[in-house]
Write a structure and sequence with these properties.
It contains ten helices and eight strands. 48% of the residues lie in helices and 21% in strands.
């Protein structure tokens, strides 16, 4: 064990406890935590007492069962607000860009839209008009549909019926049943496709980055229709699925 880890041994154990409490579905007793983590009961009891004092865990006095504490809510909110998906995603997106040379976008959801955070221009002379800071609808974009697919059907229903559905092209899905059928295809494939639903002549494929129920952002590859061959499509689908896994492993 390293010097740093030895001096922070209690901290490591505390994080291990919080990870366990995060992943269980029901409150647990001290004995159950002890057995699951293979910790000495006396040591565990002392750590839990300190964690209770700090509101890192809570205990039901009637059942003596533990759950995560309310202090972590504030930490979680601050971590999300400070988190920058660009720092994790950029190296992987640069790798894709070097292989296919097409336009890549990184985005996050903001006010029921996708906002572009980063753009990699296509190497070819014809580039797309999108720009960093621009927003596009969730329902008519690959990143947006990938983001929605990570939510429950009820959440998607509420979203779809709360926004103005504009038919940007003849391919825009303006019928909810058709839209949900497409969402099911996204869930099955693992990636979303925008078949000229927002802009004629441009097709996109996108994935969302998720972990433990949280959605951290999304990525898409956009290609002018005249350049999109079957072989390039398959290469893009494979690359974005591989990249999705790599990025989520880093989250």
């Amino acid at each position: 064990m390293s010097e740093a880890k030895r001096y922070g041994n209690v901290l490591y154990k505390s994080v291990e406890i919080m990870n366990f409490l995060r992943d269980i579905e029901t409150p647990v007793t001290l004995t159950e935590i002890c057995k699951a983590l293979n910790m000495n009961k006396g040591t565990l009891s002392k750590i839990m007492t300190s964690m209770l004092d700090l509101n890192l865990v809570t205990k039901d006095e009637l059942t003596n069962r533990f759950t995560l504490g309310s202090r972590l809510i504030g930490y979680g909110a601050a971590a999300v607000s400070q988190f920058r998906i660009e720092s994790i995603a950029s190296p992987f997106m640069e790798e894709i860009h070097s292989k296919i040379g097409e336009t890549l976008h990184l985005g996050i959801e903001e006010n029921n839209q996708i906002m572009y955070l980063k753009k990699y221009e296509a190497i070819a002379t014809v580039n797309l008009r999108s720009r960093v800071g621009q927003t596009i609808p969730l329902y008519a974009s690959a990143m947006g549909k990938a983001t929605l697919a990570a939510r429950t059907d009820k959440q998607i229903y509420d979203y779809y019926h709360s926004v103005d559905i504009i038919q940007f092209t003849n391919n825009t899905l303006t019928n909810f049943a058709d839209f949900m059928a497409d969402i099911q295809r996204v869930r099955k494939r693992g990636y979303a496709i925008d078949c000229e639903e927002y802009e004629i002549g441009v097709q996109c494929a996108g994935v969302a980055f998720t972990k433990l129920g949280n959605i951290y952002g999304a990525m898409s590859v956009s290609v002018p229709k005249y350049r999109l061959t079957k072989e390039l499509s398959q290469q893009i689908y494979s690359l974005i699925l591989e990249t999705k896994k790599k990025i989520e492993d880093k989250l």
